[in-house]
TrEMBL record, chain B:
Source organism (scientific name): Roseibium polysiphoniae
InterPro entries noted in UniProt: Rossmann-like_a/b/a_fold (IPR014729), UspA (IPR006016)
Protein name: Universal stress protein
Gene3D superfamilies tied to this protein: HUPs
Domain of life: Bacteria
Domain UspA: 1-137
Signal peptide: none
């Protein structure tokens, strides 16, 4: 009887694929034991370093709430201002790499081996990748971002000492509502279209390839095998995995912060629940509780079901806005906005010599850093559920289709709000703070109470689907790529995601959340650029 | 009395399941029953195997080694789950029904404080399986 995992004779995945031969055994660096009655199985030192730092971070931020805010805001400003060229340039490379994958012969490679068949139907797969990938942001920014860009563009450019002080994208569109609307929509779609999804696709494909086809554990470090070789099992690998954990936690916490902010604002509007820290903390705790149930029920019994409910509700709200709102404007706007997006894409994505520094640093740079900090989480989640798809099918489905859905979503929500302002002279949407704009837009339509409630429910369900899938991902990374680690670990991470969001919200508000997302996004962007090269190398010796 | 026994096996902890495995084979020899070892894994590379096929080969080997010289017919079945941690009991119950088993022999740990929050796998199987379940403590 041989219970020792044997290194030789690794069977092939289904059909031809090219396994990497390594002496490393998954779980060899793990500590498996139990703490009281609760068993655990974690990677040393990835779990210890990331777990202890996060606990320390939460305690410190809560203890120094007053000082923390200033530090975080300074950090965010400095990073997005001095590294904007890097974030913009890197994101462009990811988009180009994805198009290369679609068009090149690599597109034929199948994830999981040549004869692998998909684990999930298109509907279930798409629901999960969309709910994990965009989530709360679509609710928070669907109305608020197009309106912000529309307003700042309409205001034209302002200068102070030769430096642009307005927040308008590109050259603005002073006193020209039509051009301002076009610019606002194009700029918003730019932030929600090809670039974020290319970032996700790069990470997801790299992880899926090295895990399902090459037989390496499902963690970030495996992607770097073609670059670092056996060294990835040592400190270079530990650092990559720890960075991935940080990026995921802070990226998620940022979204949870946005979600809490918006849900609270909506609840105040509908039911008069006070909008303060106590409500937000209670909200985050309650939602984390639901997420705990979801992680306990697992990928199929919890996350997938919630994602599908989520998609159903989002589709219902979208349909309502289209039918009750300015239907014709939305349908024609879809094509107009798509054209505006494609036309303005080169200018908007240009990384150097930008005059619109407030826009390109404050919005674009922040977004790219935020998406990048989300990418290990969304990427790993997409990778896990994407077995059996070909590379071409995978990239088309992760890059192009979600981008188009985002164009449509933004057109419906942003377009409706802009129509309200331009045609009906409504001012409530434009005057409202960011987190209330969605509800003010819905208030101009029939059944406002019902749709606002649906909006709040959606924010909360999106919140839960991000939190539960995030916990699964962090648990897998900190367990050295094991997907069957004991349940208490998931519970630990799910709980701490909520706590990080609370700590950051109390110690500096959304600014703090954004600062941490951007700070972890930067080192991870470097990791991702290397990942493109590694993926290229990995695909090159895969049978097609 | 029994024709088909299912023995859920956590390959990772096969050593702890020694008693359960021995009891299953002895019972099967006594009643002339067949024994099926059932394991649950994910399609992702894990600590024990890179693929479900490799996992199944190992499980089968374990079953054959255990039954060697006992005159008991053994087989192995691997259930591929998207999320083995969460779906374990459901997968096992499905396998028990599908195998048309009339006996389950299962290793389990000594109850502790944690079982107040999380029922052990053995306890859940005993509660929900449609057939007799023989739980055997690891120690």
């Amino acid at each position: 009887m041989s219970m020792e995992p044997d290194a030789q004779g690794i069977p092939e995945p289904e059909g031809a694929a090219n396994l990497i031969e390594t002496e490393y055994e998954i779980g060899q660096d793990n500590i498996e034991s139990s703490l009281g009655p609760f068993g655990f199985d974690v990677h040393n030192p990835v779990f210890l370093v990331s777990g202890l730092s996060i606990v320390g971070f939460v305690i410190l931020t809560l203890a120094l709430q007053d000082q923390a805010g200033a530090v975080f805001n300074g950090l965010r400003g400095w990073l997005t201002a001095s590294l904007d060229w890097f974030f913009l340039g890197a994101a462009n490379i990811f988009v180009l790499f994805c198009f290369f994958l679609i068009l090149s012969p690599f597109g034929k490679v199948r994830i999981g081996g040549r004869d692998a068949t998909p684990d999930y139907s298109y509907a279930g797969w798409f629901a999960m990748l969309f709910a994990a990938g965009m989530g709360i942001g679509l609710m928070f920014f669907g109305v608020s971002e197009p309106i912000s860009h529309f307003n700042s563009s309409l205001g034209g450019t302002t200068f102070e000492g030769g430096v642009r002080t307005d927040w308008a994208p590109l050259g603005a569109a002073a006193n020209d509502p039509k051009a301002a609307a076009e610019l606002g929509m194009a700029a918003t779609i730019f932030h929600w279209g090809l670039h974020p999804w290319a970032i996700y696709a790069v990470v997801a494909l790299a992880l899926a390839l090295f895990s399902y086809n090459k037989g390496l554990p499902l963690t970030m470090r495996s992607v770097f095998y073609p670059i670092f070789g056996e060294k990835i099992w040592g400190w270079p690998g530990h650092v990559i995995d720890i960075l991935a954990v940080f990026a995921t936690l802070f990226g998620l916490a940022t979204s949870l912060g946005f979600g809490a902010e918006q849900a609270n604002a909506g609840l105040e509007l509908l039911f008069g629940i006070p909008n303060n820290d106590v409500s937000k903390v209670v909200l985050i705790l309650a939602i984390t509780g639901v997420a705990l149930i979801s992680v306990y029920r697992g990928l199929d019994g919890g996350v997938k079901i919630l994602s599908e409910i989520n998609m159903g509700l989002a589709a219902a709200l979208l349909l309502f806005v289209i039918v009750v709102g300015p239907t014709l404007a939305i349908v024609t706007g879809f094509l107009d906005n798509l054209i505006a997006y494609v036309t303005l894409l080169p200018a908007l994505s240009n990384p150097i010599g930008r005059a619109d520094t407030n826009f390109s640093q404050g919005w674009t740079s922040f977004y790219w850093a935020w998406w990048i900090s989300w990418s290990p989480f969304v990427g790993m989640f997409i990778a896990r559920v994407s077995r059996g798809r070909s590379v071409r099918e995978f990239v088309v489905c992760v890059l192009l289709i979600p981008s188009l859905v985002c164009v449509f979503w933004m057109t419906a929500f942003g377009g409706t709000a802009i129509t309200q302002i331009v045609q009906d002279g409504v001012t409530s949407v434009a005057d409202a703070p960011l987190e209330l704009k969605l509800f003010k837009m819905l208030a101009e339509m029939p059944f406002a109470g019902l749709t606002s409630l649906l909006g709040i429910v959606l924010v909360i369900v999106f919140f839960v689907t991000s939190s539960d899938s995030g916990s699964l991902v962090i648990d897998t990374i900190t367990a050295g790529g094991k997907v069957d680690a004991p349940m208490p670990q998931r519970v630990f991470w799910c709980t701490f995601e909520g706590l990080v969001a609370i700590a950051l919200l109390l110690g500096g508000g959304l600014g703090a959340l954004q600062a941490m997302a951007v700070s972890t996004g930067f080192p991870f962007a470097v990791v991702l650029l290397l990942a493109c090269y590694a993926t290229y190398k990995g695909l090159a010796d895969e049978p097609r | 009395m029994f024709q088909r026994a299912v023995v859920p096996i956590d390959l990772k902890h096969a050593e702890n399941l020694k008693k359960a495995r021995a009891a299953a084979i002895d019972l099967a020899a006594h009643y002339g029953a067949e024994v099926r070892y059932v394991g649950v894994t994910s399609a992702l590379p894990g600590a024990l195997a890179h693929t479900p096929d490799e996992f199944e080969a190992k499980l089968k080997q374990l079953a054959e080694d255990d039954a060697a010289g006992k005159g008991v017919a053994v087989s192995a079945q691997v259930i591929v789950s998207h999320d083995p941690t969460a779906d374990l009991e459901k997968s096992l119950l499905d396998a028990i029904r599908a195998a048309d088993a009339d006996l389950v022999v299962m290793g389990t740990h000594v109850p502790n404080l944690g079982d107040g929050f999380w029922s052990s796998n053995g306890a859940l199987i005993a509660r929900h399986a449609p057939v007799s379940v023989f739980l055997i403590r690891a120690v």
